[in-house]
Request: fold
Amino acid sequence: MEEILLRAGALLTQAGACAWGCADSAWLLPRMREEAREKALEQMPGLKRLLCAAFPYARGTERAGRISRYARGEDYHRALLRRLRPAAEALEALCPGAVFTPWADSSPFPEVYAAARCGVGKLGKNGLLLTRTAGSYVFLGFLATDAPLPVTGGDITPCRGCGLCEKACPGGALRDGAVDPEKCLSALTQRRGALTQAQERLLRGGGMLWGCDRCQLCCPENHGLTAAPLPEFARAEPPLTEADLALGDRAFRRRFTGRAFVWRGVQPLRRNAALLQESKAEGASADHMPRGGNEERTNNYGK
Ligand code: SF4
Ligand code: SF4
Reply:
């Protein structure tokens, strides 16, 4: 099985991962909520291991903008599954009788903890995994398997705990490594439907149409990154014009098909644009607000 694990690592690296590891389900399952555990075991009754892989999407040195770096390229669910499937098929061919099921983002597993447990990176106070070469600018992909592969890693390594992410967070959403989605600008820009007045104020001041990179841009663990972002993610921010935002939902989805910011349709983006416009009209133009926290001062991480 040692040989299969090494092969798995080579396949995941070939698929574009900048770091990978293997976690034991005996550690993972007792730490999951009952509903999530049931879902995982329903999908794979003989689950034994979770192979974790981190795929780089940015460096933090990209131009500031109004769409978060993670959402500027191809929808990562789609891209990661495309990259993981050949690795899963190759491993199933190498391990007759074993199953390797790819997951991207929507798995029932506590993904960041699982990745930290198997040594893919440190556990950040910003709730993100911090890899050595791509920092927190990674998407996590997984292969769940019933093959008893050797495990990697061990005790979870926390980040340096400087607290800069908590200070940079505009909504005060971070506490003890957990993100409160009611106060997180990124979560709120993606929410459909009504927001509270306080949440609308946060959006007006945040200057973002979609997402928020502040707790990543300020993080010292994101300095000096060396991993190159994968090409499907390393795209310039698409200009979203007034005409785009006036499109009907289906037409909007068609126009930006395959992009990560369309999954909730046009409504949240249209609302976010209107709030930014209001803010501008009130003289507190989002153009004059700090975008991406202290981005202007620290946006030189690639040095
Ligand atoms: S900013 Fe500091 S506390 Fe926050 S994740 Fe980075 S290293 Fe950890
Ligand atoms: S994404 Fe933005 S709002 Fe959300 S926790 Fe990070 S800094 Fe706070």
User: Anything to note?
Assistant: The pocket of iron/sulfur cluster (ligand 1) is lined by residues 124-126, 159-165, 218-221 (CB under 6 Å). The two ends are 40 Å apart (CA to CA).
